[in-house]
């Protein structure tokens, strides 16, 4: 029974740490809202699992060493996914910046085209005095 309680505490602690990390990343602008929402939902799922699941007789299915390896693997996977999430957010920010720059450049190109057409019309009128 004691080992089952340890698993529950680990699940709840993992969920709380996930939630805290996602919140701090959102505050520090490392992750955007779109990326933080799945992290928050995952954290809530781990907390609920820690509260609801009562692991009784788990030793007949998994050895303590196997459980330790599973826990280490899950922590490493969450750590890797966290850094992928940060990189995805950075890529999204850069993409938005590039879209804004392209929009500004398109506006400038249109203004330059209008000026070029106006200059061509003015130069065309000056070169051909017979038309006037």
Q: What distinguishing features does this structure have?
A:
132 residues; mainly alpha
Element pattern in H and E: HHH
The major sheet is characterized as: none
Q: Cα-atom Rg, whole angstroms? A: 30 Å
Give a count of the beta strands, DSSP E runs of length 2 or more. 0
What distance separates the N and C termini?
103 Å
> How many helical elements?
3
Query: Roughly what fraction of the amino acids lie in strands?
Result: under 5%
Structural class, by secondary structure, is mainly alpha
Unreliable stretches, pLDDT < 50, 5 or more residues?
Answer: none
- Form type: rod-shaped
Mean pLDDT: 88
Percentage of residues assigned to helices? over 70%
Describe the structure.
The chain has a domain at 2-88. The radius of gyration is 30 Å and the shape is rod-shaped. The chain has helices at residues 2-27, 33-52, 64-127. Helix 1 (2-27) packs antiparallel against helix 2. It contains three helices and no strands. It is mostly helical and 132 residues long.
